[in-house]
Each structure stands twice: as structure tokens, then as C-alpha cells.
Write a structure and sequence with these properties.
The chain is globular, with a radius of gyration of 24 Å. It has seven helices and five strands, in the order ααααβαββααββ. With about 240 residues, it is α+β, with helices and mostly antiparallel strands. It has a five-stranded mixed β-sheet with strand order 1-2-3-5-4, covered by helices on one side. Helix 2 runs antiparallel to helix 3 and helix 4 runs parallel beside helix 5.
């Protein structure tokens, strides 16, 4: 009877630990989704601001022309300086056709270029994707962050590049991200992900969760000087 009681207590304790772990994971997942959703909305707002600037281009030119006709050159210089300051924060260079993805690419890749990385982005997407926008944000964001992080660890004198390709193929969202790296990985499996530390390791795990959740496909390849990740997610 004593052994049965002890065994029962062990089972109950184990169940309690398991349920508590699941509860904490769910709590963290909810927090993460809210955080990513907020970031996605902020990037969409940034993109809308970019589009607004382009829409108002003629209005800005009319104002500048009016000041020139009145000889108010100091006001022209002040207004141009003001426009340049604001445009530096809302530069739009990468266009895919999808507002949310455009906002994320411009936000992250502009920062990468300022860090001296060579960027090549070829992407064409429909205006609306059936993918969960939070999952899409986690997937694209972490892949780009990991690529930038790998490049930052390299000697600045080397060719530090990030290449991105996105499209929709036969009702599937396709994403490829490759980057320069000084790391050589022999085994691209769970062991590789487990041994990564910090933001890179967390990013790899989050990417895998999104792919698994959406019943997608992921392929990682490591060749001398290059690390590449391919992801395909089925679209409804």
C-alpha cells in the first residue's frame, strides 16, 4: 500500500509539473502573438505613411514652387530639410505587392543596409495571403533577423550578404532566405537547433513551430560561406 501511495504521489506530481509547463507555454504563446500582432500593425502603419508621402508628392512640390515664386528661399530650404528628415524614417524600397510584407521588409532590410550588408530581394506576392499574419510575421522576421545576426558575426571586410526570394507557387507560399556565414554546419537537424543559443536559437525554434503549425515544409542547407533556408506553406 505504501508503494502504491508513493507511486500515486509521483504520478500526481508529474502531472502537475506537466500541466503547469503547458499552462506557462500557452501563456507565453499568447503574449508572443499579441506582441507580434502589435509589431505587424505598427509596420502596416509605417507602410501606409510611406504611401501617404508618395500620394502627397504633388502637394509638396506646389508648396515649394509657391515659395520659390515669392523668393522665399530660406523657407524652401527649411521645408526640404524637413521632408528629408521625415522621409529618412519612411523610406520604401522593397515592394512585393503585399502591404504587411512590404512594411516588414523595408523596416528590417533598411536597417541591415545601414549596417553595411549587401541586400538582394526579389519578391512578388498577392495583396492578400491566406496565411495567418502573425505566423507570417514570425516566419519572415526571424529568418531575416537570423541572417543579419550571422552576417554581423563576420569580418566587415568580407562580402556580407542577405538574399531573399518570395512568391506564390501552385497555391503555396514560398520563401527563401540565404546569407553569408563564417559557420560550417555538418548536421542541419534538431541537434543543430538545440545547440544554438540566444536569439538565434529561439528564432530557429519559432520558425519550426510556424512551419509545423501550418503543415508546411522547411529545408536548411549549409555550404562553405552560405547558409540557406527554404520554406513552403500551403495556402487555402
Amino acid at each position: 500500500m505504501i508503494w502504491i501511495s508513493i507511486a500515486g504521489s509521483i504520478i500526481i506530481c508529474g502531472l502537475f509539473v506537466f500541466l503547469n509547463k503547458r499552462r506557462n507555454e500557452k501563456k507565453y504563446q499568447n503574449y508572443e502573438e499579441k506582441l507580434v500582432s502589435s509589431q505587424w500593425q505598427e509596420m502596416n502603419q509605417l507602410y501606409l505613411t510611406m504611401r501617404g508621402w508618395r500620394h502627397d508628392y504633388h502637394n509638396h512640390m506646389q508648396k515649394i514652387r509657391a515659395h520659390l515664386e515669392m523668393g522665399e528661399y530660406a523657407e524652401v530650404r527649411r521645408y526640404i530639410d524637413l521632408m528629408e528628415t521625415e522621409l529618412d524614417a519612411v523610406d520604401i524600397r522593397y515592394k512585393t505587392g503585399n502591404t504587411g510584407v512590404d512594411a516588414m521588409l523595408n523596416s528590417k532590410l533598411t536597417l541591415a543596409e545601414r549596417k553595411g550588408l549587401r541586400i538582394k530581394c526579389d519578391a512578388e506576392l498577392p495583396a492578400h495571403l491566406s496565411c495567418n499574419p502573425v505566423d507570417l510575421c514570425v516566419l519572415i522576421g526571424n529568418l531575416i533577423d537570423n541572417a543579419i545576426e550571422a552576417c554581423e558575426k563576420m569580418d566587415p571586410s568580407r562580402d556580407r550578404f542577405v538574399r531573399i526570394y518570395m512568391c506564390v507557387r501552385k497555391k503555396q507560399f514560398y520563401l527563401s532566405v540565404s546569407n553569408a556565414t563564417g559557420e560550417t554546419v555538418r548536421r542541419l537537424d534538431q541537434e543543430y537547433i538545440t545547440h544554438k543559443r540566444g536569439n538565434h536559437g529561439n528564432g530557429l525554434r519559432r520558425i519550426n513551430k510556424v512551419v509545423e503549425k501550418n503543415r508546411g515544409f522547411i529545408n536548411r542547407q549549409n555550404e562553405p560561406g552560405v547558409f540557406a533556408t527554404e520554406v513552403m506553406l500551403p495556402l487555402e
